[in-house]
Amino acid sequence: MSALLMFALTGAAAGVLAGLFGVGGGLIMVPALAFLLPLQGVGPDVVMQVAIGTSLAVISATSVSSMLAHQRRGGVLWPAFRALAPGLALGAVLGALLAHVLTGTVLQRIVGVGAVLVSLQMFLDLGEKRVRSFFGGSSEPSPQTSGKNDLTLFSAGAVIGALSSLIGIGGGSLTVPFLSWRGVAMRQAVGTAAACGVPIAWAGAAGFVAAGWSVPGRPALSLGYVALSAFAGLAVMSVLTAPLGARLAHRLPPRVLKRAFAVLLLVVGLTLLVK
Prior knowledge:
mainly alpha, two-stranded antiparallel ribbon, 2 strands, 1% strand, globular
């Protein structure tokens, strides 16, 4: 099987699962790439960096359409986005630079921990009220306050951007709980988090391109830590198949779907931790 076909099939699966479970494809693509890239001759010292950098590049290609879709439904809280975006971009670049100096094993463990934590978040169904209650936030949403205190939002954005870049995700699993705690209604929290995926993915991907520009062991066709053949297959197919997953999601029990995906992520995370 050719490398491009393998990546296309992975992208198709990532797109269906992302549309089906309502999450970004990063936590699907990174483990899959960590398995596939060594088969293409990618060196073990850089395989996780290439997997994460390529995942962010794919998300950068798909995040804009997601943001626009939420904007058309009035789901993006732009004041909060504008306050978060500079921190998100800075944190994503710093995360890429940190990934550059970490070993592949450490990065693999970080991705594994991220998958396990997202799995627990989904399995425990940490929705709007539970998140605010857990963090001691107000019992009623108050979106008008979420754009205040730009320094706090900048700092939070930097942390979210760095962690997302290290794991290779768009950050929705971190941004949604934070915005909910800040009093943003869940629909706007999800839409704003989708918009926040744009600066995370673009800045993170740029950071991985720059950090890995002359590193040995990368794929033959690559820009820094971004594998171009993997990017092409994943990006095209994930965009084409995500609507199929979304249609399936409306026909299947949502709670069962969420728990099933949580179990899948748990297995993936534990595999990365013990591998």
